[in-house]
């Protein structure tokens, strides 16, 4: 039996690890794609390697691009990462940790990768509930990119293949994502979510990503296996 191939954007974080496990459960041959884009939390790159190996990716490409050349984000510029923000602050505005056009850039590379390996399926672990401040995590954005992908590729125009962007986490809470991943055997102890980790990679426990992750485990009635710096 020939397995369908899928490209999975894999940051090494909790969401993308869960997304990779879902793609595996759905019967896809896993082709993971990660990015060293100049982010300050480079520890996620090693986490992505561990996750890809743990879940069983057939192929894992780590691509280097330099978004620090543009800056404009606390993740790619000399801008302080916000800490200890409350839930309303996290959800009600586009945060300074937003990297301009990042998902569009990543998905474009993912689309090129998918077309090269003759795949019509791309998985991305965006979430519209916990990260509602990010404009490139919304369902309408995903729908628009999918339409563009159909028009912009050889496979989409010549063979009329339906290019699909899979967003299995988009309407799940963080607690629901965690429970889903655990049911699929995801080891969250090898993932990395923190925007501003300490020297050895331990999460700070105070940035938006850490707070959302910790709340997710708390709401799920579980303990996060990571060791926090707080």
How does this structure look, described?
- By secondary structure, this protein is of the alpha/beta class.
- The protein has a single domain, classed as 3-Layer(aba) Sandwich (Rossmann fold), CATH 3.40.50.620.
- Helices cover 38% and strands 12% of the residues.
- The chain is built from eight helices and five strands, in the order βαβαβααβααβαα.
- The protein has helices at 14-25, 43-55, 87-92, 102-116, 139-152, 154-158, 174-183, 208-219, and strands at residues 4-9, 28-36, 59-64, 121-123, 164-166.
- It has a five-stranded parallel sheet with strand order 3-2-1-4-5, sandwiched between helices.
- β1, α1 and β2 (28-36) form a beta-alpha-beta unit.
- α1 (14-25) packs across α7 and α7 packs across α8 (208-219).
- The protein is globular.
- The model has no long low-confidence stretch (mean pLDDT 92).
Search tags:
single chain, 5 strands, Rossmann fold, 230 residues
Q: Total number of helical segments?
A: 8
Mean pLDDT over all positions: 92
The number of distinct structural domains comes to 1
CATH topology assignment: Rossmann fold
Task: Work out the radius of gyration.
Answer: 17 Å
The beta-strand count equals: 5
Largest sheet, if any?
5 strands, parallel
Assign a percent range to the helix content: 25-40%
**CATH-assigned homologous superfamily:** HUPs
- What is the topology, as strand order, of the major beta sheet? 3-2-1-4-5
Give the H and E element order: EHEHEHHEHHEHH
Please provide a brief summary of the model.
By secondary structure, the protein is α/β, with parallel strands linked by helices.
């Amino acid at each position: 039996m020939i397995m369908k191939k899928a490209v999975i954007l894999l940051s090494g974080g909790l969401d993308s690890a869960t997304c990779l496990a879902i793609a595996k459960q759905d019967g896809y041959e896993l082709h993971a794609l990660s990015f060293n884009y100049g982010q300050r939390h480079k520890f996620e790159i090693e986490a992505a390697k561990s996750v890809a190996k743990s879940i069983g990716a057939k192929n894992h490409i780590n691509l280097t691009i330099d978004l620090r050349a543009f800056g404009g984000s606390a993740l790619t510029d000399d801008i302080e990462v916000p800490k200890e923000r409350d839930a309303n602050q996290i959800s009600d505005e586009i945060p300074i940790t937003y990297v301009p056009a990042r998902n569009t850039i990543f998905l474009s590379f993912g689309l090129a990768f998918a077309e090269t390996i003759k795949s019509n399926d791309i998985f991305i672990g965006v979430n519209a509930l916990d990260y509602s401040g990010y404009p490139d995590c919304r369902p309408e954005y995903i729908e628009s990119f999918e339409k563009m992908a159909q028009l912009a590729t050889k496979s989409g125009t010549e063979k009329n293949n339906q290019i699909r962007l899979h967003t299995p986490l988009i309407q799940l809470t963080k607690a629901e994502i965690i429970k889903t991943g655990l049911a699929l055997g995801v080891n969250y102890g090898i993932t990395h979510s923190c925007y501003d980790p300490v020297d050895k990679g331990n999460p700070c426990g105070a940035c938006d990503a850490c707070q959302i992750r910790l709340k997710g485990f708390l709401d799920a009635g579980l303990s996060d296996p990571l060791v926090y710096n707080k």
